[in-house]
């Protein structure tokens, strides 16, 4: 990476834990051209399918994005393997995972690297259920959460630790990197125990909105209860509801916008778009600008304003949100443009790898597939 021009020491005020590299092995690939190359170049003799097709590989590109503090500051061309499944002798199913977001180097801590490729081969533990899910912090008493699935009720908003507390940046950043890796990796279950252990290890003063948000992502991946001190978390929807009680956070809001569009609880807070506009100001990071555009679009779509949703969708870059093109088609339908909506829906490609990398469950992916077929009037 350094040989390709990446320099981290040029600016000494950047802390190691602020740096993340995100790899799209096949960000720009012509799948049809790859399939044609596969059909035209079968395996022959000692030449495997992978090797035969690779000799006639169409042009394409992968990219590594360098993020510092959530901002994309550089990009490096780094193409992965073929974006389609090919056999290579005894190796079955060789593929780079087209469009897959894989955290290659997730976190650098104290001058050393916490490797995103590290794995633990063990079965996921099942912590015992001991108490209702309650947000217990050093400054806020635990609040009672009903067991009937309702959103926690409080007499006052919870006093969660500050999201921008500098002492929490490193541990929460490390936890986030592990959770994202767990969700995107093909063998994510091998990362799951590390995600649970890292979540439990977060100190009480840092158990704020992002801690509950990341706990919800872990619970969505495996439904085993999470327990840390006096806090036991069993329901990802309740954990997300608690996360929403913190200061407006673009990533949390965007994730809830995605799940609530599928009919899941909790819903976005009222005025979520306006709250993010105020919180992020005039110069949000590229990532937060995308998330804000997505939240504002989903909010407009939820109230039936297809024109406003389409205008807001123009803020959002592709290859981030797995339902983006589907929601654009729905925005056309909301404007009464049924023929255009059907055509757009038929052109939608729902990428299961991107969906998994975003944190969507298999059931949510299938729900998006069904919604696309219904909108496209396909059988």
Please explain how this structure is put together.
By secondary structure, the chain is of the alpha+beta class. The protein folds into 3 domains: 16-114, no CATH class; 122-247, no CATH class; 262-375, Alpha Horseshoe (Serine Threonine Protein Phosphatase 5, Tetratricopeptide repeat), CATH 1.25.40. The chain has helices at 31-40, 49-54, 166-184, 192-201, 209-221, 236-243, 250-261, 272-280, 286-302, 306-313, 324-334, 338-347, 352-358, 362-375, and strands at residues 19-29, 60-68, 71-77, 86-88, 91-94, 102-105, 107-109, 112-114, 226-228, 231-233. A hairpin with a 2-residue loop joins strand 9 (226-228) and strand 10 (231-233).
Average pLDDT across residues? Answer: 77
The tally of structural domains comes to 3
Global outline: globular
Main β-sheet, in a few words?
4 strands, antiparallel
Number of strands: 10
* SSE class: alpha+beta
Please give the alpha-carbon distance between the first and last residues.
48 Å
What order do the strands of the largest sheet run in, or round the barrel if closed?
A: 3-2-1-6
Order of helices and strands: EHHEEEEEEEHHHEEHHHHHHHHH
